[in-house]
Amino acid sequence: DVVTATAVDDDGTQATDDDDATVTFDDTAPEIAVTKTASPASVPETGGDVTFTVTVENTGEEAVTLTGAVDTVFGPIPLASFDTTTLGVGQTASASFTRWLASDSLTPHHDVVTVTAEDNDGTEDSDSDDADVTFTDVAPLIAVTKTVDDDSVPETGQSVTYTFRITNTGAEDVTVTSIADDRFGDLLPTA
After folding, report:
1. Quick one: which H or E segment has residue 121?
2. For a tag on the chain, would you pick the N or C end, based on fewer CB atoms within 10 A?
3. Does the pTM of the predicted model rise above 0.85?
């Protein structure tokens, strides 16, 4: 920026001078805040659909453009899945995806998403957030039926055969650990 000044004295003689000043601009770094949620936050151990939502807010002082999003478990999140990729100051963008989760060990699911954005000068910012999904224990369910091959015997007696059928009616695999009869005792070794 140059300023030039001209002055005239009382004799009409002119004087001119100029000077410049330089103003530099400091780059204002972009700032984003990422929030990740899971809905529902708990599913049965046998599994269920969970919808993850990633929200990015421009908390900085200038517009930003989203340049990448990656999840530690599910991998890259396509930028096209966000409702917008250009955010003015204070604006948000969101993307959702649904995944089937199950855990027979009841170990909680944990993953982190990281989103990167840049301003018009190419300066980047990134932020991360996590989401956890817990699993509820599903109780085993079985149905037992006992039948006999001849339900009428003479008073002198005869051999009969009892049949036990154990049916898994639950949602997960089971292991039979005991078969006990009130008259014949432990039948598991003969099963």
Report:
1. none
2. N
3. no
